Amino acid sequence: MIYAMSDIHGQYELFEKRIEQLRPLLEDNDSKLILLGDFIDRGNRSFDCLKLAFELEQEFGRNKVVVLKGNHEVWFEEFLFLNEDVWLEEDKDFLTSGTFLTKEQFKELDVLPNREVRIEYVKKCIKEDHKELLVWMKKLRLFYETDTQIFVHAGVDEDIPEEEAEWCTIGTPDYVMTGKFPPSVGHFYKDIIAGHVAASHLARDLSFSGIFFDGESHYYIDGSAAKFRRVLCLAYDEKEKKYYQFDEDGKLKEIKGYRYGS
């Protein structure tokens, strides 16, 4: 089985619960877990979520636990190393970056004279204290490909000639893989399993709480963890070649194409 989750967004308790559910299943040599990025932002335990993904890869190996990069990890990198400020819109009051600090370091922020100085202090602390984690994060893969699937945070370039489709993972810019919008639907030469955009948004229905399948080639598994407290889990049976939603109660529910208004 291949299991996949995405868009944890700092919701450590939800993430940990799912991992404990999957851990005994990963002991099966034929099973693997693919994490599609966006471990950080919006929740109050971003550091713990990123660290858990790192530890899972260390525990099981990078061929069994495949960790991909999302746009929020990209923004975090740009904030730390390129002085880009996109991150600051997501990180008001250091909600995310503060989770990488010790209690003493966080208290120090209150005595610093202004926000600019606080920002530099936060970056200095994170880079000094979490070098191994940051080196790992910067090297995260952008996609994982099988014979019939592409797992990616946001998507790939599908507006290419059909005869060149097999080169899409090479030709797609990095920023598209982590931040593609709007999401694609319809037929593609491989199945696309992505996060980034909430499944309820694709369904045009805020009450929709499952994995969104367009009925052709696209599965979207972002359950809006920060808003709706959901971490969806897709399960793919490689022998049966069937997709399931793996629910928190341990049941597998076959995924069928969504009908708008149904």
From TrEMBL:
Point out the signal peptide segment.
Answer: none
InterPro entries referenced in this protein's UniProt entry, alphabetically:
Ap4A_hydrolase, Calcineurin-like_PHP, Metallo-depent_PP-like, Rhodanese-like_dom, Ser/Thr-sp_prot-phosphatase
Extract the Gene3D superfamilies matched here. Answer: 3.60.21.10
Residue ranges of every copy of the Rhodanese domain listed in the record: 13-84
Instruction: State what protein this is by name.
Output: Metallophosphoesterase
Question: Which organism is the protein's source?
Answer: Eubacterium segne
